[in-house]
Automatic annotation (TrEMBL):
Keywords: Amino-acid biosynthesis, Lyase, Pyridoxal phosphate, Threonine biosynthesis. Pathway: Amino-acid biosynthesis; L-threonine biosynthesis; L-threonine from L-aspartate: step 5/5. SUPFAM superfamilies: Tryptophan synthase beta subunit-like PLP-dependent enzymes. It comes from Desulfonatronospira thiodismutans ASO3-1. Its EC number is 4.2.3.1. One of its GO terms (molecular function) is pyridoxal phosphate binding. This is Threonine synthase. It comes from the Bacteria. Residues 95-405 form the Tryptophan synthase beta chain-like PALP domain. The keyword Lyase applies. Its cofactor is pyridoxal 5'-phosphate.
Length: 481
């Protein structure tokens, strides 16, 4: 196959329930198991066909496609056979998602942290977050279902802390036909920048008192009782698209994952699920020889997965938690819907690579916001979730979990500008007590005013210029030539 030829391979994707083990065909729209309400993973029953191609040949195929020009394979569908090999070429939705850069940190930051590291800037996706990977897959599949069933109206719906709603609204606005978008947000708990996105894309935006978990219960009820397309990560097609994150890291690493650690904020647990499943697929096909170590990171204000894994393996029981305010808003989820997927895949991951292949650490809110500021003051564009990952790396370093010879890739899930309000709150010392954050002067940066409007009015242009120069010389400590 040439690099500009759409793949001929077609998989046999089926929904596998992680609770009762029921299996359903992939040409129907399911979110949870009709038998037990458990969550699904999609599995390709033709996967053995892919094993007939060597890992070396798969690497060559994916590398060739990276240089290709076909629109449908510019983004996540460069890895078509591993993601959703049931979607036809004409149904692929591409808005520029994927191929986000991995930026190695400056020597100064690496010296500060004491570990080799890089950020993967997923905020450089079209809606400025990683959610676009999953939406591209989910909407491509939905495109195909709409045509197959000749549906005259499809209402897409999601609960969101901000990024999911922005992405869902953007893709729904782009897709032709009967698709309409509704998003449900926790009132007052989404940044103004994030709220502007679904509004700007024309989505119906509904706000509900409470937190994300409250919104999630409402959309789950709607999905179970009405014909709506649920776009949260309970939708297993979302998970498939987000696996491209793992594939891109492996390709950036020249398919050598030895000595690599990948840090991912847990949130609703869809992304860490996708990352693990993606790397497991690459290993099964011998595309990579070794799995990277995975570190999930949670805030102490929303840490049910951390609490589960800190228990003795034989006595573990999962319980949701009540969340408190967090600057890592996307991670402020007390009952992640994808937790059963994490439990399933973490066990497979550890069985394949060893007990230390999967870890969960948790960090304080103070560490999250200051790690974001530290990263961005050293040339990155990390969001608070990126700060959470850097805080997680520092925590893992302090606990002796990451060696000095390992290279860590941190997930900056969204663009820093989406969370600029938290930076402003830190600089202005205006956090409410619930955050548990006490700003420190060493991280605060504020504009410095010189002269006044009255000075400008009473001075000539030359006098004003000289006065401004003198003030800047004083502030900057400049010396004359």
């Amino acid at each position: 196959m040439t690099m500009d030829e759409f793949p001929a391979y077609r998989g046999d994707l089926r929904y596998h329930c992680l609770e009762c083990k029921s299996v359903y065909p992939g040409d129907e729209l399911h979110y949870t198991c009709p038998e037990c309400s458990g969550v699904f993973l999609l599995q390709d029953h033709n996967f053995s066909e892919l094993k007939k191609t060597s890992g070396e040949d798969w690497r060559a195929v994916f590398d060739q496609r990276a240089a290709g020009k076909m629109t449908q394979m510019q983004g996540i569908f460069r890895f078509f056979e591993l993601i959703a090999p049931v979607v036809d070429k004409e149904d692929v939705v591409y808005l520029g998602e994927g191929n986000t850069p991995v930026i190695e940190s400056s020597p100064r930051l690496q010296k500060n942290v004491g570990r080799k590291m890089a950020f993967k800037n997923d905020g450089q996706n079209p809606s400025a977050s990683f959610k676009d990977r999953g939406m591209a897959c989910a909407f491509s599949y939905l495109n195909q279902l709409v045509k197959k069933n000749n549906w005259d109206q499809v209402l897409t719906i999601c609960a969101s802390t901000g990024d999911t709603s922005a992405s869902a609204a953007l893709y729904a606005a782009y897709v032709d036909g009967p698709v309409k978008s509704v998003v449900l947000l926790p009132q007052g708990k989404v940044t103004s920048q994030q709220l502007s996105q679904p509004l700007g894309s024309g989505s119906v935006v509904i706000e509900l008192p409470g937190v994300f978990d409250d919104c999630m219960r409402v959309v789950e009820y709607l999905a179970d009782n009405f014909r709506v397309a649920l776009l949260n990560s309970k939708n297993p097609w979302r998970i498939l698209g987000q696996e491209s994150y793992a594939f891109e890291i492996a390709q950036w690493s020249n398919w050598d994952m030895a000595g690599r650690c990948v840090f991912v904020p847990i949130g609703n647990a869809g992304n860490i699920t996708a990352v693990m499943n993606g790397f497991l697929k690459l290993k099964k096909l011998d595309i990579i020889d070794e799995l990277p170590r995975i570190f999930g990171v949670q805030s102490t204000h929303a840490d049910p997965v951390y609490r589960y894994y800190r228990q003795n393996p034989g006595d573990r029981s999962y319980a949701p938690v009540e969340v408190t305010p967090s600057v890592a808003q996307a991670a402020m989820i007390g009952n992640p819907v994808s937790f059963p997927r994490v439990r399933e895949l973490a066990a497979k991951y550890q069985q394949e690579q060893g007990e230390d292949a999967f870890n969960v650490v948790h960090v304080q809110e103070q560490q999250i916001i200051e790690s974001m500021l530290l990263a961005n003051q050293n040339g990155h564009i990390a969001c608070t979730q990126g700060g959470e990952c850097l805080a997680g790396l520092i925590q893992a370093r302090d606990q002796g979990l990451v060696g000095a010879d390992e290279f860590s890739i941190l997930d900056a899930t969204a663009h820093a500008l989406k969370f600029s309000g938290f930076q402003e709150m830190y600089f202005n010392r205006s956090f409410s007590p619930g955050y548990g954050i006490t700003p420190r002067q060493e991280y605060i940066n504020q504009p410095q005013s010189v002269l006044s409007e009255e000075d400008k009015e009473r001075m000539s242009k030359d006098e004003f210029t000289r006065a401004a120069v003198n003030e800047m010389v004083r502030i900057l400590g400049l010396q004359g030539n």
